[in-house]
């Protein structure tokens, strides 16, 4: 328990500038003897000296360990400080915390990923993990489709990853709210991309993004016939301890840091959450 309170030092090995708002830092623990593993969908508490701590989803797959990616959108004091850091700088991490996506149930399923903005970060780890399983031909998902919405073309993050996923056979469809003169793809909300999709009994949908997006996507998926158990999303609530002690992330009888952040729609329906409207 004690070790979960004390941040471990990690060094930034690589910096990937996704866009003006989102930086991915590729970390390695300084203490290489410390056993560290996680599952896709779990998060870390990230800290920097004198700048506080924040929950950040791990955006890489456990198969990439010992390297750990965190994709960080500039929001406040800590994330602004992290955006100024270069390779070689050190940060603190605690965790991993929280429930993961149920990757053990994805064998033979058609996975439909629906993300908005930084919401692709936790799903990126799942996609890379499932691709790794497909390569090994081990309890793998049958196929994967990604629907990804951004505000403008310059806000599209994870472009390198998306290009690689397309080459590896993932059907990636992108939309922007506001186009520029070069954009030839879909203009509109990410829900518009669902128009071209089919949902079957084999579909599991993983939805991640701002609460308003989650609400509309979930409603649409339900109308298309996706069951409550087959719609899985993540909730974002302010956290302090990350490990079920402080009560800061309390939500209608649940603690998001330990009961979530991953929840199925079936679970959400037992709770009073703004994501359901
Ligand atoms: C499970 C989980 C996973 C996350 N994953 C990621 C991720 O992968 N990438 C990412 O960029 N972000 C992620 N976040 C969000 C991130 O934790 C927050 O944006 C965090 O607040 C940033 O810290 P900061 O110190 O930079 O900003 P803060 O100083 O915390 O400010 C950020 C914003 O939150 C507001 N705010 C601050 N405190 C409160 C409060 N108590 N109640 C309500 N609003 C408040 C501020 O006004 C400001 O608008 C995740 C959050 C959770 C819970
Ligand atoms: S963040 Fe402390 S209980 Fe969840």
Give a written overview of the molecule:
With 277 residues, the protein is α/β, with parallel strands linked by helices. The chain folds into 2 domains: 2-97, Beta Barrel (Elongation Factor Tu (Ef-tu), domain 3); 103-234, 3-Layer(aba) Sandwich (Rossmann fold), CATH 3.40.50. It has helices spanning 77-83, 120-136, 159-167, 190-193, 211-223, 256-259, 265-268, and strands at residues 8-17, 22-29, 43-47, 53-57, 68-73, 90-97, 110-116, 143-150, 171-176, 186-187, 203-208, 231-234, 250-251, 254-255, 262-264. The strands form 3 sheets. A 7-stranded mixed sheet has the order 10-9-8-7-11-12-15, with helices on both faces. A 6-stranded antiparallel sheet has the order 4-3-6-1-2-5. The mean pLDDT is 93. FE2/S2 (inorganic) cluster (FES) is lined by residues 239-242, 244-249, 255, 257.
State the gist of this model.
With 277 residues, the chain is α/β, with parallel strands linked by helices. It folds into 2 domains: 96 residues, Translation factors (Elongation Factor Tu (Ef-tu), domain 3), CATH 2.40.30; 132 residues, Rossmann fold.
| Overall tally of structural domains | 2
- The percent of residues in helical segments reads 10-25%
Mean pLDDT: 93
Structural class: alpha/beta
Task: Looking at this protein, list some descriptive labels.
Rossmann fold; 7 helices; single chain; seven-stranded mixed sheet; alpha/beta; binds FE2/S2 (inorganic) cluster; 277 residues; binds flavin-adenine dinucleotide; Elongation Factor Tu (Ef-tu), domain 3
What topology does this entry show?
Elements: E1 8-17, E2 22-29, E3 43-47, E4 53-57, E5 68-73, H1 77-83, E6 90-97, E7 110-116, H2 120-136, E8 143-150, H3 159-167, E9 171-176, E10 186-187, H4 190-193, E11 203-208, H5 211-223, E12 231-234, E13 250-251, E14 254-255, H6 256-259, E15 262-264, H7 265-268
Parallel strand pairs: 7-8, 7-11, 8-9, 9-10, 11-12
Antiparallel strand pairs: 1-2, 1-6, 2-5, 3-4, 3-6, 12-15, 13-14
